[in-house]
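Task: sequence design from structure.
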């Protein structure tokens, strides 16, 4: 059995683009938790927030984490808020190595400023909201087994760094 590689990190830290590249490099199936929830519910995340609110989404997210934690040998990417419930990280860790992608609020702002599909950032002052959530969450992202800074790096480069590190450590 090979443990999953689970990417966590703030919105815009690069999880999805890095995860897809990493999965190819490692010849693993790629699974994005938010896409999994969207397929199961038949609704986009933003619609789920709009219709039923954040708490409801968190319950779906928790259920999805429980389910996908039983998989193996995948690259799994998660939504930025997955770390808010400590049980999620515990579950993901059962069968996974947790890798955190870290970027400064300013980098994140540049990456997400034109994005329309992130309900938590649907506010007038995006940068302020990013800073607030970042301060609340940074210590949670730091609970990962490995951390990578992604500021100024292309997804390909970050995937390369993770690949080299994990190949080395796990071989
Ligand atoms: C969220 C991040 C989003 C998505 C939802 C909530 C968060 O995923 O799960 O909008 O709380 O940070 P991304 O990190 O992929 O944007």
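Answer:
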């Amino acid at each position: 059995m090979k443990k999953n590689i689970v990417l966590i990190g703030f919105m815009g830290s690069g999880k999805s683009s890095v995860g897809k590249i990493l999965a190819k490099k490692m010849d693993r199936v790629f699974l994005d938790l938010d896409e999994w929830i969207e397929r199961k519910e038949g609704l986009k995340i933003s619609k789920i927030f709009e219709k039923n609110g954040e708490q409801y989404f968190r319950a779906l997210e928790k259920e999805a984490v429980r389910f996908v934690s039983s998989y193996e040998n995948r690259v799994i990417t998660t939504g930025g808020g997955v770390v808010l419930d400590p049980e999620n990280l515990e579950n993901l860790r059962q069968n996974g190595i947790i890798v955190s992608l870290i970027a400064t609020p300013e980098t994140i702002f540049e990456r997400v400023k034109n994005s329309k599909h992130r309900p938590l950032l649907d506010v007038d002052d995006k940068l302020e909201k990013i800073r607030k959530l970042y301060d609340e969450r940074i210590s949670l992202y730091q609970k990962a087994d490995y951390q990578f800074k992604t500021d100024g790096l292309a997804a390909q480069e970050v995937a390369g760094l993770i690949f080299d590190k994990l190949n080395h450590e796990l071989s």
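The longest strand covers residues 96-102.
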